[in-house]
Structure formats: C-alpha cells, structure tokens
Design a protein that fits this description.
Elements lengths: L13 H14 L3 H7 L9 H12 L1 E2 L6 E2 L18 E5 L2 E5 L14 E8 L4 E5 L9 E5 L8 E9 L10 E7 L2
Antiparallel strand pairs: 1-2, 3-4, 4-7, 5-6, 5-8, 8-9
C-alpha cells in the first residue's frame, strides 16, 4: 500500500511567481512570432515554453522583489543559422528602418533567408512582428509603427529564417530606440 503524497498548498515561492509574471508580460505580445523563432528548440514543449524557459534562465536579473528584464539577453529566435552582422535600427517619421550586411556567403546563410523582426513596446505591452521580412541580400527592412507609439521607447530584434523554414538564426538585439 502506498502512502498519500504530502499536501503542498503552493509549491512556488512569491519570487518564482514574480519572475514568471515578468517573463510572461515580456513574451506574450509576441506569442505567434515565437512559434517561428523558437520552433527548432521546442523539444517536448511548445516554442513559447522554450522561449519562456530561456528568458527565465538568462534574461531575468535581480533579486526578489526587484526583478528586471535584461532586454539585451532576450532571444526572440534561436537556431544555428548565421545571424545578422553590422545591424542598425533608426526611427524617423513613425517608421523604424532596420539595416544589416549581406553576409550570405558565410556558413549556412543564404541570400534568400527572410528577416525575423520584433519591435517591442514594453510600456504599452505591445509588439509589431514580422516572421517573413525582407531577404538577407536586401539589407534593409522598414517597419511602420502605430501612431500612438510616437515618443515611446521600443526594443528591436532581428533574426533570420531560411526560405524553406528549416533553419533559424539567433536574434540580435538592436537596442533601445526612441520613436520620433
């Protein structure tokens, strides 16, 4: 005869719940995008859960109750495809222009790889995403931003996915951009 397991009212601490809530607030606006960006690392879990695990382990800093997100350590896509190089992001007139070098001759990178773009407005809890952007050899992509983002700070990320969707690159953080 087996004994009954001990009853546990709440196995998670307030600190764990706080970290998890912070991670969900960050990733939830880009849930659909993460299906593409994290699909290769979703072993026995959903792509969203894979991204959540990574973010909890690598991008949440501080100690309870003062946790924060190190946005430079967030990955919106993850894989072995060659990432972007010499990437920049500039905002003018309600548009965000992202540029990169055509490094399609390096490793597995191809000229036809598609840009994966996330523009994240943490203050508003919103994101603009594109999981089939410009080709790598185009070297630029423009993103039209909502009018109510004018004056806000946003975080921008750039990754790539192969034309056939079988390879994904780690995203690169483009920095904090003031929308003017």
């Amino acid at each position: 005869m087996r004994s009954l397991p001990q009853k546990v009212k709440n196995p998670r601490t307030q600190g764990q719940r706080s970290k998890f809530a912070l991670t969900l607030a960050l990733l939830k606006p880009m849930t659909a995008f993460l299906r593409t960006g994290w699909k290769l690392y979703a072993h026995r879990q959903s792509p969203f859960n894979a991204a959540t695990s990574y973010t909890l382990a690598n991008a949440i800093t501080g100690t309870y109750p003062d946790y924060s997100v190190d946005v430079s350590k967030v990955l919106v896509s993850r894989g072995a495809l060659i990432p972007a190089t010499n990437e920049t992001a500039n905002a003018t007139g309600g548009n965000l222009t992202i540029s990169w070098d055509n490094n399609s001759s390096a490793g597995s990178a191809k000229a036809t790889d598609k840009a994966l773009i996330v523009v994240l407005n943490l203050e508003k809890g919103e994101a603009i995403t594109n999981d089939a952007g410009a080709e790598r050899n185009t070297e630029t992509q423009s993103v039209v931003l909502p009018a109510d983002w004018l004056g806000d700070e946003v975080q921008a990320y750039l990754g790539f996915v192969s034309d056939d969707g079988k390879e994904v690159a780690n995203s690169v953080y483009l920095g904090v951009i003031q929308i003017a």
